[in-house]
Design a protein that fits this description.
The structure holds two protein chains of two kinds. Chain A is an alpha/beta fold. Chain A has two domains: 3-274, no CATH class; 383-438, no CATH class. Helices cover 22% and strands 38% of the residues of chain A. Chain A has helices at residues 3-15, 23-38, 54-57, 73-76, 113-118, 123-129, 139-146, 381-389, 394-407, 416-429, and strands spanning 87-92, 95-96, 109-112, 152-156, 166-172, 178-181, 184-189, 194-203, 208-219, 224-232, 237-247, 252-261, 264-273, 279-288, 293-302, 308-317, 322-331, 339-348, 354-363, 369-377. In chain A, β1 (87-92) and β2 form a beta hairpin. In chain A, α2 runs antiparallel to α7 and α8 crosses α9 (394-407). The longest helix of chain A has 16 residues, at 23-38. By secondary structure, chain B is of the alpha/beta class. Chain B has a domain at 2-88 and 163-249: Rossmann fold, CATH 3.40.50.300. Chain B is built from nine helices and twelve strands. Chain B has helices at 40-48, 72-77, 95-109, 117-130, 135-138, 148-162, 178-191, 231-239, 242-249; strands at 2-11, 14-24, 29-33, 54-62, 65-66, 80-83, 90-94, 141-142, 166-170, 197-202, 215-220, 223-228. In chain B, the strands form three sheets. Chain B has a six-stranded mixed β-sheet with strand order 6-9-10-3-11-12, with helices on both faces. In chain B, strands 2-1-4-5 form a four-stranded antiparallel β-sheet, with helices on one face. In chain B, strands 7-8 form a two-stranded antiparallel ribbon. In chain B, a hairpin with a 2-residue loop joins β11 and β12. The longest helix of chain B is centred in the middle third of the chain and has 15 residues, at 95-109. Classes of the chains: A alpha/beta, B alpha/beta. Chain A binds chain B through residues 380-383, 385-394, 396-397, 400-401, 403-404, 407-408, 410, 434-436, 438, and chain B through 45, 48-52, 71-73, 75-77, 80-82, 84, 86-93, 97-98, 100-106, 109, 114, 158, 162. Chain A: Belongs to the iron-sulfur cluster assembly SufBD family. Chain A: Residues 175-405 form the SUF system FeS cluster assembly SufBD core domain. Chain A: It comes from Euzebyella saccharophila. Chain A: Residues 22-168 form the SUF system FeS cluster assembly SufBD N-terminal domain. Chain A: This is Fe-S cluster assembly protein SufD.
């Protein structure tokens, strides 16, 4: 049985475990119909030209883990941002771990999707927001919607700001030979509120894991949301991340994606600007080797006038790694005075590494500033010589230059501990310890 | 200290240096002057070991060791320093961290322990005062957004920190106003000793009013066509390079 058939038959089993009378189940059923019709995307589709899911579909994934698994904090401490106090929403093989988590209802709700989808007190919010910005026809998103049951639920009321950042972490223990996870997150930041989120998926063994995640973020007027995705998973873990962001007037949302490891990563990051004076920021650092593959697909839809979007993705690809950057910017006719910037710079450090980069601009307004640029190159030989002439050996000099290349993406990281952690990960990825703390 | 014998070097099969002979002894200051395209910067890059240039004939020796096939970093460890005409920007790495790395890499290569932090700090303080460098400047990203003058001053600061045996200043005067020029030259003069040597590469005589050379060499078309004392620089200033070019033809 291939994965699609297995998922379809699993849906019936899934239905016996959820409240099918709940209105959300109508949404799931509708989504399932869409997935049944469309199935997994193939390379024939333009958006999937360079990323094949064919091999993943041959894997006999467990759709539901058989048993609950426990982890000791000390086993997994290093994956947390332990240098700073955080709220934590932790899942082990897709199941919530209250032991590792720290949730809150103190003025804000930082808790579970399963509660939001079942408890009556959350129903008014769920009715307004659930599946409202996520695509209703993109097949992988609808697959996630069909199986949506668990994930993070964050609600920040007007003028509030949680005391600390929120970490959403998914661990896969390897108790299943191969496991498919479909977390569903719903994040709402009401007017003038602030929120910082760090998301991480971590497989603890080399067993196969496929995560198909959907996150919906709603930023109301003047809300500020900073979202950090740390993608540094094991060699057999694949991630399809579908993130949809709905922004209202004067809101400011940034998503930083750090892709340092995993077998296959596909990031579908979609911003919709439904108001004026909005700022949207998408930044990414990718450092991959082996046969790792990453595909960044971004979309910014400028729907109203006087908004800005900034995109800056840097990639360093070694060995047989492959990368894709596809950045789509749509500026509607009414969206005058739009400022949209897009930059994608790549360094190939091996002859066998490849990158496909494509800006896609659809501009219907006439008074806009849009710029885009992409580069693919090797390290600058003059710069290398400069560092070597100061006594820095070639290997360290290369690392230092790659670090410098990726560095400006980190400038906009607003949590110092995240910045420090990413700096360390970059240094580690580049395989050198320099004479100072980066 | 430095012995260059019949040095020929080319890039992409184009010969730039066509038989250079030069000897620099400890305690000396040499100026190499010449019109644009005469091979001045190539000569400095070849001494520092830039791999793009192929030495096709002749040799460069430092303290009797042939530098052929010696990597740029190893030359630096042996005491060669090149101040760049166009220093490279390294965002995210501060001047202090960069110089710490450079110093400790050199020490590592010589089998020494890392320099203790307090010693490093003291040295940074001394040398930055010598070059009239604001401490705040040292925490900025290396060369990023620096003015031309700041870049050059930073090069000389690095030279002061690395204490090279042989310093080559490639067009250090370009882009400097007269005050900055004085500070930089003053720094170089203070670092000069009987044990080290300086090669000043310049198009103009201006810098040589402040860093007074013992010898002046005129490079033209990949060869040293004339050598003399410091008065040669003045003569060049007065007569221009055409005089040399014409003489070279004769």
């Amino acid at each position: 049985m291939d994965l699609k058939d297995k998922l379809i038959s699993s849906f019936m089993a899934f239905e016996s475990n959820v409240d099918i009378e709940h209105p959300v189940h109508d949404v799931r059923t509708e989504a399932m119909k869409n997935f049944e019709m469309k199935g997994f995307p193939s390379k024939k589709e333009e958006a999937w030209k360079y990323t094949s899911l064919k091999n993943l579909q041959k894997v006999d994934f467990s759709i539901f883990p058989k048993e609950e698994n426990a982890l000791e904090y000390k086993q997994v401490k290093k994956y947390f941002l332990h240098e700073v106090d955080t709220y934590k929403i932790v899942f082990i093989d897709g199941i919530y771990s209250s032991y590792l988590s720290e949730t809150t209802h103190d003025g804000v709700d930082i808790c579970l999707m399963s509660s939001a989808l079942t408890k009556p007190m959350y129903k008014p919010v769920v009715d307004v927001y659930f599946n409202k910005v996520a695509s209703k026809d993109e097949s992988l998103t609808t697959l996630n919607t069909a199986f949506s049951r668990e994930g993070a639920y964050i609600y920040i009321p007007k003028n509030k700001m949680p005391k600390k950042p929120v970490e959403i972490i998914h661990f896969a223990t390897g108790n299943e030979a191969s496991l498919m996870l479909q977390p569903r997150n719903l994040i709402i930041a009401e007017e003038n509120s602030e929120l910082q989120v760090i998301e991480r998926h971590q497989s603890l063994t080399s067993n196969e894991v496929l995560t198909n995640s959907v996150t919906e973020i709603f930023a109301a007027d003047s809300a500020i949301v900073d979202y950090y995705k740390i993608q540094n998973d094991s060699e057999n873990a694949s991630l399809i991340d579908n993130t949809y962001i709905d922004q209202k007037g004067k809101s400011n949302v940034s998503v930083h994606t750090f892709s340092f490891g995993g077998k296959l990563i596909r990031n579908n990051l979609n911003f919709y600007q439904n108001g004026e004076h909005i700022e949207s920021t998408m930044k990414g650092v990718t450092i991959l080797g082996n046969k790792q593959h990453v595909d960044h697909h971004t979309l910014v839809h400028h729907i109203e006038p006087n908004c800005e979007s900034h995109q800056d993705y840097k990639g360093i690809y070694g060995e047989n790694a492959t990368g894709v950057f596809n950045g789509k910017i749509i500026v509607d006719k009414i969206a005058q005075k739009t400022n949209a910037f897009q930059q994608n710079n790549n360094i190939l450090v091996s002859d066998k590494a490849t990158i496909n980069t494509k800006p896609q601009l659809e501009i219907f307004a006439d008074d806009v500033k849009c710029s885009h640029g992409c580069t693919i190159g090797q390290l600058d030989e003059d710069a290398l010589f400069y560092l070597q002439s100061r006594g820095i050996p070639q290997k360290e000099a290369r690392a230092l230059l790659m670090y410098a290349f990726a560095n400006n993406v980190l400038e906009s990281v607003r949590i110092p501990e995240v910045k420090a952690r990413i700096n360390k990960l970059i240094a580690k990825k580049l395989g050198v310890s320099l004479g100072f703390d980066l | 200290m430095l012995k260059i014998k019949d040095l020929h070097a080319s890039i992409d099969d184009k010969e730039i240096l066509k038989g250079i002979n030069l000897e620099v002894k400890a305690g000396e200051v040499h100026a190499i002057m010449g019109p644009n395209g005469s091979g001045k910067s190539t000569l400095s890059a070849v001494i520092a070991g830039k791999e793009e240039f192929e030495v096709t004939q002749g040799s460069v020796e430092l303290d009797g060791d042939d530098l052929d096939e010696v990597a740029p970093e190893e030359r630096a460890h042996k005491g060669v320093f090149l101040s760049f005409q166009y220093p490279v920007e390294i965002p995210g790495v501060s001047v202090t961290n960069f110089i710490k790395t450079a110093i400790n890499e050199s020490r590592k290569a010589r089998g020494l322990e890392e320099m203790p932090a307090n010693e490093m700090l003291k040295m940074i303080r001394e040398k930055s005062e010598l070059l009239d460098i604001d401490r705040k400047f040292l925490s900025r990203s290396l060369n990023e957004g620096f003015s031309g003058g700041e870049k050059k001053r930073n090069e000389i600061f690095q030279m002061a920190m690395l204490e090279p045996k042989l310093a080559i200043l490639d067009e250090t005067d370009s882009g400097l106003d007269i005050d900055a020029l004085r500070i930089v030259a003053n720094g170089v003069n203070k670092l000069k000793s009987k044990d080290n040597a300086v090669i000043v590469i310049t198009h103009y005589q201006r810098l040589l009013e402040y860093i007074v050379p013992d010898f002046v060499h005129v490079l033209h078309n990949g060869k040293i066509v004339k050598s003399g004392g410091k008065e040669l620089a003045l003569e060049l200033e007065e007569k221009g390079y055409d005089w040399i070019k014409n003489e070279a033809v004769v």
